[in-house]
Amino acid sequence: MARNRYMVGLVFLTFFVMSLLTNILGPIVPDIISSFHVSLTAAGFLAFAFFIAYGVMSIPAGFLVERFTEKPVMILAFLVGALGSLSFALFPQYRVAIVSLFVIGAGMATLQVAVNPLLRVAGGEEHYAFNSTLAQLVFGSASFISPRIYSYLVLNLNGVSSGQNVALRVLGRLTPAGLPWASMYWIFAASALLMVMVISLFGFPRVQHTDEESAGSWDMYRSLARQRVVWMYFIAMFAYVGCEQGTADWISKFLYQYHGFDPHTTGATAVSWFWGLLTAGCSIGMLLLKIFDSRKVLIGAGVGALFCLSAALFGPANVSVIAFPAVGLFTSVMWPIVISLALNSVAEHHGSFSGILSTAVVGGAVVPVIIGSIGDHLGLRAGCAFLYVTFGFVLSVGFWAKPLITNATISLKKVSAEAPV
Fold first, then answer.
1. What are phi and psi of 349, to 5 degrees?
2. Do the domains 216-403 and 1-214 match in fold?
3. pTM score, whole prediction
4. Residue 218: exposure state from Cβ atoms within 10 A (0-12, 13-18, ≥19)
5. Per-residue pLDDT for 129 more than 70?
6. Rounded to whole angstroms, what are the CA distances from 145 to 84, 138, 142, 159?
């Protein structure tokens, strides 16, 4: 039992480091544009490189885990992440950044496939729902912290003095004077290598994959690909990840361009709160899903997200800086609801369907590029307006979804009737 508790802790730590590496793109976009003198479209291709790797690796990673087991695959994934981080830390150039982010994305996608079954076995199936939710909170906490680490480094690496702490002095020597934000990649590399050493010390339990976790056969994928509902949910997941990344990646640049907010302070803080509220919203969503049909919750979340997006894009500075993070609050329930509706809408091959849905994270690759491309021609506000399309499609799921099984809810009337007088 002690080993299992330690293993659950290791999985939580893995989620934390994964998030630390995954959600830093938003705050650094303004720096990338100014440091490398690239267009909005070119900046969008950074997110494209990262999330296209997720799409490419999601299904192959499942076969890797089934062939080699979790421990060696996790070690390999973190080594790949460290290699990607070091390549940019040593050679901070735009072209290297594209390759670096693709490599990091491939490693993180592989990790995501490996750790979920491990969490179920290490913590016990009876605690899996709770542990899985807690893991998402851990993941979200790193998303909240990561932009703040970036802000701290950028503000303190300029003019590093001997009186500052050892870490800052070392990073100051390693990082080019004009690119203090690139120091984040040294942090990423060190974190990934530390995880390799930590994982090497653990003895892993044997994992028997459930139908939902199994990669499945190619015949199963072909069978699912012939079903219209599978493609509809693929598009919905594509749109959702596009909403999430398309918002987060451009918040800081938008606030700087239209309202003059410093991307190193106010911009980074807004991105941090976007992820923070997205995480906090999960708890509110769990409560709502016990009371209302998930489709109604999804419709309400979609309307709320569109309202906040409108306020962020067209409101004054003091409204925009609050409304952008608020989008994250309404976005928080979309992922679990769409996933559950999707899996509850097919009768078999849930593991293979999960793999197909995982590849839909390429939405996080495509949508930021579309926003950047429109932004180069019509302005970033017009580019961000493309999010009305993606949020609109996610909202539409609440109207056309017809799951075979609906979410269990508590009848408030029944609870009231049964309550003691």
1. 60, 45
2. yes
3. 0.81
4. exposed
5. no
6. 21, 11, 5, 24
